[in-house]
Amino acid sequence: MDYTAARIKMVDNQIRTTDVTSHSVLEAFLKAPREAFVPAASKPLAYIDNDIEIAPGRYLMEPSPLAKLIQLATITKEDLVLEVGCGTGYASAILSMLAGSVVALESDEALAAKASETLAELGYDNVAVVTGDLEKGYGAEAPYDVVFVNGAVEVIPESFFGELRDGGRLVAVEGYGNASRARLFVKERGIASERTVFNTAVKPLPGFRKAAEFVF
Prior knowledge:
Mean pLDDT: 95
Low-confidence stretches: none
CATH topology: Rossmann fold
Number of helices: 6
């Protein structure tokens, strides 16, 4: 299979056509070999317009919403990025080409090991894969210029905003299924303002549930 041709077709037909206009984002998607980040049996499907399962209950996000979310973060080479839920490291590779450095957080140790191995083999040497509870973020390297949540969540933990520097951006999909919304938060003077940017439907990350409410 000609993966280079498939990659170009993905960018032209799935990403450019959905309001992704950032040259740097488009270039990153043209360079990152998506097929290297999926299970062997799924390699022929690496460039389809869909999510791809990488472990039970975990998915590589569909290219179009991933590109739109990354564009929303307006990442520059001066930025330190925290990616929450790196999976096998595909989005980490994209982010690494846009940012100064990336901390890729993953709760599944097997996925983290795979991400670390693949990223190292491909030369993405400004990414550090770390393991831990996704909902706690990763305070050891904070503050971050960008927090990128790689999957849908029901609630965004306050800890994420605490790990964001002033002027920093947080990008996340809030809600599940067709009711989910891509949201951008910008922190200024210790306060995060927010706006909903587009509707989308992406697979959820584990955890991130709202606390149960008691009804009397």
